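Q: I have 451 residues here and want to know how they pack in 3D. Can you give me a structure?
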Amino acid sequence: MKTARGRVIAGTFFHAPSLGNVEVLEAALITVDERGTISAVERRDSPAYRRMHAAAAAAGTLETVPSGSYVLPGFVDLHIHAPQYPQLGKALDCPLEEWLARYTFPLEARYADVAFAHKAYHALVSDLAANGTTTAVMYGTIHQAANRVLVDACLEGGLRAFVGKVAMDNPHTCPEYYRDSSSEAALAGTQALIEYVKSRNGDGLVHPVVTPRFIPSCTEATLQGLAAMGRAQGCHFQTHCSESDWQHRYALERYGRSDAESLDWFGLMSERTILAHASLLSPRDMDLVKSRGSAIAHCPLSNVYFSNAVFPLRAALAKGLRVGLGTDISAGPSVSLFDTLRMCIASSRLLEEGVDPDLPPQRRGRKDARIDWRTAFFIATAGGADALGLRTGRFMPGNAFDAMIVDTQAHEGSIRIFDEIDTIEDVLAKILYGASRRNIVAVYVAGRAVA
């Protein structure tokens, strides 16, 4: 299958249209129009199924997913540090504030070299798509030329993306060799990237996102200016919130408010805001996030290394917060949201059951914290799309066809199906728990093959 544009696709489709609800469209037909939008979904028992199947076959527009392969929505990754991709899988041996100074700021400073940026960003975009990610929310660096390379890499790779120039002008927390020279420079650079994205974005796949790195990295003037700019331009916002004890304490000591309250005070909390991590949010903070309509990028894999806590995902969902998943490359050492999804499930179990063997079972964990694979599947797909206000993540008319085809019989793949005992839902569970890159045989964004 080279393209899904203007085609009728026959196969079995899995999606999670609502939290905790998995739907199997077995032996169904999905029509994808020339814009890459789903125009019809017909189940096998539908009166229109045979007519649509016969008409597409006669017109040569029918594409059949092979037996043993299944179609899933593409993953939505809400939190990626694109310039950190070259250090993926290393430099994870110290607390967050030390990690930034020792490893990450020196690496990000290298993006003054456009050739280095080109090599790293094109590799990242290619690897994201190959692992089933169809939408990515990304931090760039302070460098205008490198950020444009990132935008162009997403456009050339066909990835749906939100790209932001990272703003960091606080001389007390940002090194001289890697920071915006002033608040004016941080704001001007952000505005320039917004204009560049809008000038290049013919298909509407790539969007600008206003990106204060976090409260510690920015002066008050920059935080206020970015809030005003984002509202005026109709942009999304992305930043970190209460990720670690250090970051959480910083806002309290600097402003006498929590991280979430401080972001809100500066005008950075809205229905277009993505808050990364949020592991240390209080119940009051969660209520504030919900009242503003902001969303959380849950990064369970990177939280192991830097967050000092397990994000209470089930409590957040019970409050009605919008939550999606993030790899947090490179604090998360995997480009695959399959790995992040699995850690999402595991970390919720760790939170519920506890980890200190010296404590008795009744004191070891947090009651009713676990989630299952159905919930994780939802937040990795439709939940992430909802956080961004995108019509994707579900196989429904009017949604973009962002999807991956997973071959459970792939040579050297990592899934084993036993027809004698596995139900169709078991197949999906095995895909989510077991799929590797070799099992992903095709990826589509807006109906166009990107991997």
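Q: Anything worth noting?
A: Residues 183-200 form the longest helix (18 residues). The chain has a mean pLDDT of 96.
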